[in-house]
């Protein structure tokens, strides 16, 4: 069942549209990550859903009810702010219990729930600690507990792990996913970190300049970026103009195989590095190895074809050619993606 | 702003501020009724005082309760009454003296009324005897006071007259008040103008200045901070001060046991007389009550209460002075006076000339 | 097969119903601001603008004709120009001196813990409420003939401008300590520490980090001190002697003594123009300086002084406080005990018996205390309600209108009490607003002076509150009102306490307007003090001192109680 639906929501700041006719659906118990560069309208999306920002046009539906005119405090959503925004004058317990107090939960019940949540986020017995005495990670956990405490229909996270160091972040992502799974919470998270988004979410939404560039499972988005923007945002650089004739396309890298059913005519193609296969220099597209970088058990190569843009390729450690070596390149149709017009 | 708009604004504001409830909390919200009210409103300066028993007596006799409304010092009170002429604050005004009388009369503040008992008031005090717009209630004298101990210790005779004050023997001894800001200061200036005339008073003040007169802004400072004879205050170093003829009795009023003599004396030849009047305000909502109050102000009961409450002399000749005044006070026989019209005409320019001369 | 769905770009619906409204959110914010502003705006329109306009109009409009020629006449009068010049420079000098003397005090009170701190903070506020005639007299005991300086070094400062400046420091020390210290205590010291770690010297760190954060509070304090000293009245008269006159003195003279309303009106306009210029300057300095600050609980920032330099600073400040504030106050207390038969409580006992003797002139001290407390309590409620709403409305920075409103709220500080008092008299004289006989007029007049304090103390703190905290509360289910109560209120509780304390103290000590409008049968403490001082005699003088001492005690006591209330509240849930 759809818990959250956005219909053509637009928010403008002056002339600039922070959200431009955005459509989005989030199903119950689903975790959706909104991914995009800073300033791409991600936070605005959360603020519109929370009612902190008014949509100029379009509608927001929560659990089937139009939210127009419903003030923030009656929407029953949870929002974890980017920098937590814990109440400095209250202790940890006071922060976590805040939402319960607003819902007039009985004191004993509230205390029980606070204890339970602090246990859940790994801070048992921290009720009386002052906010100023918490580390960044602990503040994050308290903010999460505070957002979860009133059992919101929808939990929204704004850069939930943004300020944490890498190790902690990777551990927390796993914990969070587990936690949301156990609680059955519906989650809408925004982040600029693709690793975080892919690790956390059932579904990923990539935003570009206030518009949704692509939605899909992490695998779909990773394997089939919809637009050049998405492709570049995910770190893919093998992009080229092409003209499709039947099963293949003409490009500056020569003839490339394309998936079945690609409409003929001019288009833009992405070749994922995994689809760039090394052969002997005599076969395929002749290139010089311009650079190579070790990435754990794989090596990323930058190849320079004669009179054409550079190519990125990946290969196993033992197969890696040296810099300056001449190689040939062939392409796998499975890793060639036809990109949409996008923006 | 026109009056309808004013009402609309006022009504809106009352709603928004919720003042109504607050006003209702005041203990006397009901007493500001219109005519036929059992309250007489007396507008006065902040020195007005009377015994509670005497005011009760008035209520017992007439059925009216007196409500006293404030007006700052004597000058401010008169000016407020003039400004609020179209909607007078109360029914009776008390406290306009001869230095301000012309201003009040020129502004047509009062309804004529001849109070009962006026025949017992000396003619010299009845400055509006022709029309009875105002009724004299009391008088007092502004005189130079001296510190008895100082002059006894120095074996020096205290000064008696204005001329004495310019003598070298009294160099650097006198402190007076700013005529522009202080009522006794102004009265003293008027006294010199009365004594030396339009042409002579400036010359007198030049001599006074050469003899080291000190000018401070208010009576409190002159009397308590600079004058050496006052028992209270900071013990100043000036044994001569411009004050009231009633200051010596005031010095001993609370002394136990009372001394033979007050510690201060009065230079009887330096005095200027202030007469205080009351009048029925034009547009008063309770005219009947106001007239009754004016009558009451001239009764012996009220008149004999005046000295110990306001430290001035009753206007009625037959009012008995309390023992304190009889023993420690002095009767000033030849106090200077000036025609109120002359005061009104020259006051501002005299004060200006005085300021540039002395300050 | 391409799984990714290309983005479908839809046309925006041409005429969606909401499309007509530009920025609905902003509009709602503006509407809320206007609603919040309605009460303070109405209050000021009715109880300030209208009365003052009425008295000025009375002066300049004669027989239905505007007589604006008077403006030129008055403004070219060299005597008026002298007064204007003196008024301006003494206020500027007093403000500079007060800041120089009191800023170290603000630091010490904000950052150091020492025994008796709370009591001392209440005591330094006492001068603020003392009637100037009493305090001036005490100050004379220091600077005047036979005073401390005179007997030690033969130096007499009375009737010199130094006496005026020092007395202004005496009166306004608390304004700086409380306004600046209140914010200082809540500034996170770690930011300054961060600058130190980055290589900034102690002074540089203070100048670069703390001072900019404090700037709005310092500017607010400076503004208030300037306005107070610009409109100084009693101090100038008592300590300066008749040679010195401020605009305020001139306006009083023209209105209350000479009834020269045209001249008084022009001088009032000049005063307004000068005050408006100062407000504009203030707004220009402060703009963009007020930002979100990281505020912490004041208890966390104060500690015992460490090292010789800090101890020296603490002792230096205490010495200044002792000399400049405690000593004059002690003189008053000493005089109230200095009875003819040796030191004792004679005057205090006499207060009661004098009242029992049956005159209307003197009141029983407890009655005066009760009157004062009652007026002050009502005035504080008015001031906090009006000022609090105004501060809430002004929290979000906005356009010219709002800034103008902000400035309007400050104007009463720069307006002569006699102008307001006389304005009340001629403006509020018809039903339903014939308030001239009502006691409510006194707290109303006092609240006019209290409101600027409330706004100026609360605004910097309110603006420093991160608005996302309010959003966090809203998301957790708090209505806007509840969010204000749960988030803003606890954070500004301290500022509110400071503001309420100020408003309370101001109305306890207010004399200028009260004397025109207070009912004689319900005199306040300052009015009662003035009555005793207006009569000759040792007992009267002694009783005036005794009553002043009681006023000091009531003031200090009230402030202590207010401070306690606000500390109790910080430990929520």
Automatic annotation (TrEMBL), chain A:
Superkingdom classification of source: Bacteria
MF terms in GO: ABC-type quaternary ammonium compound transporting activity; ATP binding; ATP hydrolysis activity
SUPFAM superfamilies membership: MOP-like (SSF50331), P-loop containing nucleoside triphosphate hydrolases (SSF52540)
Any one cellular-component term (Gene Ontology): ATP-binding cassette (ABC) transporter complex
Keyword tags: ATP-binding, Nucleotide-binding, Transport
EC number(s) given by UniProt: 7.6.2.9
ABC transporter domain location: 4-234
Protein name: ABC-type quaternary amine transporter
UniProtKB/TrEMBL annotation, chain B:
UniProt-listed Pfam families: SBP_bac_6
Gene Ontology molecular functions: thiamine binding; thiamine pyrophosphate binding
Keyword Cytoplasm recorded: no
InterPro entries with a match to the protein in the record: ThiB-like (IPR005948)
GO cellular component, one term: outer membrane-bounded periplasmic space
Coiled coil spans: none
Biological process according to GO: thiamine transport
Gene3D superfamilies tied to this protein: Periplasmic binding protein-like II
Keyword tRNA-binding: no
UniProt xrefs under CDD domains: PBP2_TbpA (cd13545)
UniProt keyword terms in alphabetical order: Signal
Stored PANTHER family: ABC TRANSPORTER SUBSTRATE-BINDING PROTEIN, THIAMINE-BINDING PERIPLASMIC PROTEIN-RELATED
NCBIfam families recorded: sfuA
Protein name: Putative solute-binding transport system protein
Organismal lineage: Bacteria, Bacillati, Actinomycetota, Actinomycetes, Kitasatosporales
């Amino acid at each position: 069942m759809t818990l959250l639906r956005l219909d053509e929501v637009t928010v403008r700041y002056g002339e600039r549209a922070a959200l431009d006719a955005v459509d989005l659906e989030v199903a119950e118990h689903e975790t959706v990550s909104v991914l995009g560069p800073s300033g791409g309208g991600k936070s605005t999306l959360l603020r519109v859903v929370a009612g902190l920002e008014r949509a100029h046009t379009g509608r927001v539906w929560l659990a089937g009810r139009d939210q127009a005119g419903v003030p923030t405090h009656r929407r029953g959503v949870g929002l974890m702010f980017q920098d937590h925004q814990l109440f400095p004058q209250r202790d940890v317990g006071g922060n976590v219990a805040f939402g319960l107090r607003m819902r007039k939960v009985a004191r004993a019940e509230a205390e029980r729930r606070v204890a339970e949540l602090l246990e859940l986020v790994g801070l048992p017995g921290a009720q009386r600690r002052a906010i100023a005495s918490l580390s960044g990670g602990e503040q994050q956990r308290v903010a999460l507990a505070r957002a979860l405490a009133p059992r919101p229909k929808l939990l929204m996270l704004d850069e939930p792990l943004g300020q944490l160091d890498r190790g902690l972040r990777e551990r927390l992502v796993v914990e969070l996913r587990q936690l949301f799974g156990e609680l059955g919470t519906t989650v809408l998270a925004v982040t600029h970190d693709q690793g975080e988004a892919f690790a956390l979410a059932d579904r990923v939404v990539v935003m570009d300049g206030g518009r949704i560039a692509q939605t899909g499972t992490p695998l779909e988005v990773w394997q089939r970026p919809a637009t050049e923007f998405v492709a570049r945002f995910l770190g893919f650089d093998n992009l080229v103009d092409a003209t499709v004739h039947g099963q293949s396309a003409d490009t500056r890298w020569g003839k490339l195989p394309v998936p079945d059913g690609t409409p003929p005519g001019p288009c833009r193609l992405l070749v994922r590095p995994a689809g760039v296969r090394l052969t002997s220099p005599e076969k395929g597209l002749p290139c010089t190895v311009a650079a190579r970088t070790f990435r754990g058990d794989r090596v990323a190569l930058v190849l320079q074809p004669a009179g054409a843009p550079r190519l990125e390729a990946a290969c196993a450690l033992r197969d890696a050619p040296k810099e300056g070596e001449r190689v040939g390149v062939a392409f796998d149709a499975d890793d060639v993606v036809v990109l949409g017009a996008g923006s | 702003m026109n009056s309808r708009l004013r009402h609309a604004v006022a009504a809106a504001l009352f709603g928004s501020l919720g003042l109504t409830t607050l006003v209702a909390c005041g203990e006397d919200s009901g007493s500001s009724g219109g005519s036929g009210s059992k309250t007489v409103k007396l507008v006065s300066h902040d020195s007005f005082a009377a015994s509670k028993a005497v005011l009760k007596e008035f209520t017992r006799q007439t059925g009216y309760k007196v409500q006293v409304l404030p007006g700052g010092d004597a000058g401010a009170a008169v000016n407020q009454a003039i400004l609020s002429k179209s909607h007078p604050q109360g029914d009776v005004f008390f406290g306009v003296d001869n230095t301000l009388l012309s201003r009040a009369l020129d502004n047509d503040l009062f309804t004529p009324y001849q109070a009962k008992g006026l025949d017992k008031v000396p003619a010299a005090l009845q400055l509006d005897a022709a029309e009875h717009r105002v009724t004299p209630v009391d008088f007092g004298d502004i005189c130079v006071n001296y510190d008895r101990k100082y002059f006894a210790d120095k074996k020096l005779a205290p000064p008696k007259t204005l001329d004495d004050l310019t003598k070298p023997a009294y160099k650097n001894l006198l402190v007076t008040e700013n005529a522009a800001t202080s009522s006794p200061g102004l009265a003293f200036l008027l006294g010199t103008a009365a004594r030396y005339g339009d042409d002579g008073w400036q010359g007198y003040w030049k001599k006074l200045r050469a003899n080291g007169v000190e000018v401070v802004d208010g009576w409190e400072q002159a009397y308590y901070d600079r004058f050496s004879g006052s028992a209270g205050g900071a013990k100043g170093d000036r044994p001569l001060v411009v004050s009231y003829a009633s200051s010596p009795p005031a010095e001993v009023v609370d002394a136990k046991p009372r001394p033979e003599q007050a510690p201060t004396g009065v230079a009887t030849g330096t005095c200027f007389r202030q007469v205080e009047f009351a009048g029925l305000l034009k547009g008063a909502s309770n005219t009947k009550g106001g007239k009754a109050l004016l009558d009451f102000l001239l009764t012996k009961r009220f008149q004999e209460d005046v000295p110990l409450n306001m430290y001035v002399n009753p206007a009625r000749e037959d009012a008995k002075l309390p023992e304190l005044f009889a023993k420690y006070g002095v009767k000033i026989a030849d106090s200077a006076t000036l025609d109120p019209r002359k005061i009104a005409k020259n006051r501002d320019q005299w004060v200006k000339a005085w300021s540039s001369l002395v300050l | 097969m391409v799984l990714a769905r290309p983005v479908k770009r839809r046309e925006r619906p041409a005429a969606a119903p909401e499309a007509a409204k530009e920025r609905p959110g902003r509009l709602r914010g503006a509407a809320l601001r206007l609603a919040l502003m309605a009460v303070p705006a109405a209050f000021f329109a009715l109880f300030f603008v209208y009365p003052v306009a009425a008295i000025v109009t009375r002066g300049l409009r004669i027989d239905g004709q505007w007589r604006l020629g008077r403006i030129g006449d008055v403004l070219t009068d060299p005597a008026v120009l002298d007064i204007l010049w003196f008024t301006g420079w003494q206020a500027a000098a007093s403000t500079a001196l007060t800041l120089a003397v009191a800023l170290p005090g603000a630091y010490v009170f904000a950052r150091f813990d020492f025994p008796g701190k709370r009591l001392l903070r209440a005591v330094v506020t006492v001068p603020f409420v003392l009637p100037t005639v009493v305090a001036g007299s005490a100050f004379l005991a220091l600077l005047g003939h036979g005073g401390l300086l005179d007997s030690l070094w033969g130096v007499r400062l009375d009737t010199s401008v130094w006496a005026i400046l020092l007395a202004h420091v005496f009166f306004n020390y608390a304004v700086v300590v409380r306004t600046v210290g209140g914010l200082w205590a809540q500034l996170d010291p770690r930011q300054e520490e961060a600058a130190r770690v980055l290589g900034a010297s102690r002074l540089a760190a203070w100048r670069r980090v703390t001072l900019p954060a404090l700037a709005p509070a310092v500017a607010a304090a400076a503004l208030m001190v300037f306005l107070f000293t610009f409109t100084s009245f009693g101090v100038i008269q008592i300590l300066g002697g008749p040679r010195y006159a401020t605009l305020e003195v001139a306006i009083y003279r023209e209105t209350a003594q000479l009834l020269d309303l045209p001249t008084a009106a022009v001088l009032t306009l000049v005063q307004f123009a000068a005050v408006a210029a100062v407000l504009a300057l203030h707004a220009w300095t402060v703009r963009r300086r007020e930002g979100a600050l990281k505020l912490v609980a004041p208890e966390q920032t104060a500690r015992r002084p460490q090292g010789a330099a800090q101890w020296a600073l603490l002792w230096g400040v205490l010495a200044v406080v002792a000399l400049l504030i405690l000593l004059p106050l002690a003189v008053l207390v000493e005089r109230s005990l200095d009875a003819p038969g040796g030191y004792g409580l004679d005057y205090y006992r006499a207060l009661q018996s004098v009242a029992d003797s049956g005159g209307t002139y003197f009141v029983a001290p407890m009655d005066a205390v009760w009157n004062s407390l009652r007026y002050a309590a009502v005035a504080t409620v008015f001031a906090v309600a009006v000022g609090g709403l105004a501060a809430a409305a002004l929290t979000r920075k906005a356009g010219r209108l709002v800034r103008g409103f902000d400035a309007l709220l400050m104007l009463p500080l720069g307006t002569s009490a006699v102008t307001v008092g006389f304005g009340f008299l001629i403006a509020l004289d018809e039903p339903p607003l014939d308030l001239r006989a009502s006691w409510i007029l006194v707290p109303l007049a006092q609240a006019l002076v209290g409101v600027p304090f409330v706004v100026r103390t609360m605004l910097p703190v309110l603006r420093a509150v991160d608005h996302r905290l309010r959003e966090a509360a809203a998301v957790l289910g708090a209505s806007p009102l509840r969010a204000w109560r749960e988030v803003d209120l606890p954070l500004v509780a301290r500022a509110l306490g400071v503001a309420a304390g100020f408003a309370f103290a101001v109305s306890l000590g207010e004399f200028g307007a009260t004397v025109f409008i207070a009912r004689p049968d319900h005199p306040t403490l300052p009015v009662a003090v003035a009555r005793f001082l207006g009569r000759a005699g040792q007992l009267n003088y002694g009783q005036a001192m005794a009553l002043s001492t009681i006023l000091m005690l009531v003031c200090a006591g009230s402030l202590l109680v207010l401070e306690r209330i606000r500390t109790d509240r910080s430990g929520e849930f």
